[in-house]
Amino acid sequence: MLGGADCVASPSSETNAGRAMLGLDPETSGSLGGMAISEAVEDAASHANTNYTLGSVLNHVCLHQSVIGLETLEQLKMAGEETADVVVGCAGGGSNFAGLAFPFMRERLAGRMPDCQFIATEPSACPTLTKGLYAYDFGDVSGYTPIMQMYTLGHGFVPPSIHAGGLRYHGMAPLVSLLHHEGLVDSVSCHQNEVFAAAVAFCRSEGIIVAPESAHAIKTVMDVASECTRTGEAKTIVFNCSGHGNFDLSSYEAYFAGALPDYEYPAELIAASLKDLPAIH
Ligand SMILES: Cc1ncc(COP(=O)(O)O)c(C=O)c1O
To answer: What is the rounded distance in angstroms from the CA atom of residue 15 to the CA atom of residue 28?
Structure first.
């Protein structure tokens, strides 16, 4: 709006994909990957002067984000640490996690950080790595994207409306998925109230209001650190504070008002959506 753009919520009545989704469920909460991507691809394909580039998931996006991990390796040296023991990132489509983790994974695979552990944290409401299938699927609900081999909850899966909107994606970057499949990346899932509790504790100790997405990583970091306190181990834990929460204050308000639901793992919704995986011959 400030830049002069028209702003419409997805699914919208502006595209065939959006109208089809609204026809199926006029009250749908939409979904980042499924619906918004279908509408964006359709819009780009129907305007000669418009192109579309996917914001997460694909290899080139993970590659570009890896500048974060490369810089973090340098910053660790400046802090007097040569290695990390645990690398943590939240995972929506996976590129934010990959960007931090892959340069560290290079070190691990080259034998320079052989014991480094990698943990991707996701919402329990959208448990792609922890509960999804490793299969070929589309990146969007209408099937406009190429199919990718990845962990998926099914391209038609509409996650419950949690506040970490950036983590409501049904799939996971194929590169992150492969590493998870090979056992090189671990995954955990968290409910949003425990995530916000971690974010509040972090804010009160560090003075930084983090995005609900980033707070997922912080929750895991605090769990790992608490375990170290219990066992007496000293570990260097690295995580990516992927975004500030200055535009997310209404979600903090809802948390303090006790108005955030914790969604149970939507097993039936996921099972229904996994029935529509593309057939591979
Ligand atoms: C602040 C923040 N962190 C992390 C993510 C997740 O990124 P990715 O899709 O690369 O996993 C998002 C996605 O929108 C985000 O907004």
So the answer is: 16
